[in-house]
Amino acid sequence: MRKQLIVAAAAAFLMIASACSADQGDEGGGGTGAAKPKQDVACPPVDPAAIDKGATFTWMYSVANTSFDPDKITTSNSWMYLYPVYDTLIRMDAAGEPQPMLAKKWEIGDKGKTLTLHLIDKWKYHDGKAFDAASVKANLDRHRGAKSFNKQALNDVTGVDVVDASTVKVRTKTGAAPLIGILSSSAGMMMSPAVFDDPGQGRTPTGGSGAFKVSAYEPNTKVEYTPVKDYWDPKAVNVAKMVYLISSNDNARLNATVTGSADATFLRSAMYQPAKDGKLAVCQKPSLASFTIALNVARPPFDKKEVRQALNYAIDRNAVNELQGGFCQPGVQMFPSTYYASDPSLTPDAYKYDPGKAKELLAKAGVKDGFEFTLETDNLDAYQRVAELIQANLQEIGVKMTIRPVELPKLMEGFSVNKSVDAIMVQQKADADPSIQVASYYLPDGFSNPGGYSNPTINDLAAKAKGAEDRESSAAIYKQLFKTAHDDAASPVTLCHLNTPLAMNNKVMGVEVYVDGSRQFRGVAIRK
Length: 528
Prior knowledge:
Layout: H1 2-15, E1 56-61, H2 79-82, E2 90-92, E3 98-100, E4 103-109, E5 114-119, H3 133-143, E6 157-164, E7 167-172, H4 179-182, E8 212-218, E9 222-227, E10 241-246, H5 250-259, E11 264-266, H6 272-277, E12 281-295, H7 305-314, H8 317-323, E13 328-330, H9 355-364, E14 372-378, H10 381-395, E15 400-406, H11 408-417, E16 423-428, H12 434-442, H13 456-467, H14 471-487, E17 493-504, E18 508-509, E19 525-526
Helix pairs in contact: 1-11, 7-9, 12-13, 13-14
């Protein structure tokens, strides 16, 4: 379970201060008293007649990858660097809908317990080895290994069977439906089995299955990708080269994009207006990422439902949204109420800002004079500003919250490993399937649940959701699950849901904003 929170919190490091833009006609920059930028603005689409096939697309990001081996990475942020090199069995599109990739079709059977994948034909790994069912089984077995980053995501898999050269059946203990999303992540990335034991794949991958190869690599500085010959899906390759540049300096990233040294980057709130002033195209959409406070319920008084409810009523979520420039829409459940795996009735008014009600609940819990606790969060300024706002909110109801800024690795270690921290504030990035996030926070052995919180109804619904045969069936179950979690004020305390900002020059076409916050540039093009 350790890796699950590392994924979530590392995403926080990259995204929590994000805010994005409106279309070019929207003059509002966000913030108190300003017109709010639009929440959903599409990026420029591809014009097939205008594609420069000899062009280079340059993306600039803030954090480097941890490995080029899908099993050796340590955070999901590295997925961005792996997507060009490794195709996944199933692909989630920008809207979060499953699409064929290395599996051209699939079906769930055996009363929801198996997923049968029918693979594309006549494709080879970059090293010339055949892509077939045996190689898929080898990859999935490797991903399930004890030391793999992907072990937790595939923990429900009990076995993988080769039906024939182009068909694989994956067996599960509880339910196979979640695999459709999971196999679109690193857990579904396919690498040539011939290079499994080559430690050099972490730096110079040669056994990929995707549209590009790594042609140059300078750690913490630059990755260069060039297309593979005769890729099975030629529509996905519209450039002669892709370059990912790395800089933790926000101003440097924005300036590079404005001046043309880079073609695209992501924005934080302070970068929004400068990006517009620099005549960049700015696009975004609401995402599944949420700004949350996770509580260790083994530490009194967080073990009392009324105290957890009081914290929810005490926090001014609209003020948090204002602090984020209008791009962190208030929310009270793990996912936005518009997402299929949520309860649409749980709107922000379900925990409307009400300090008076919060005080009443504290009195009911036997702590009418308040209490003290320590909140740890990342040591970035963006986190400190939000933490200080929460601190002021809680002070109004007599709760003293001490803010302790820590470096990201220590944040994980204290809360989830040592279980010695009262609460942490992170940005929870959406996982490949809702079941992963639910297990991490709500199930007794969840990594993001160091206090061992347990609710029998939630436990039962979580198992049923995993066993559902399709998304429609699981949606009804998740609706009940999140209503139960709300009624019990289960941790985490959700503050708001962020959108995903990107800025690019006027030559870039075909970039998509993914609802899960991932960075994928499949089909990106540059205008002649």
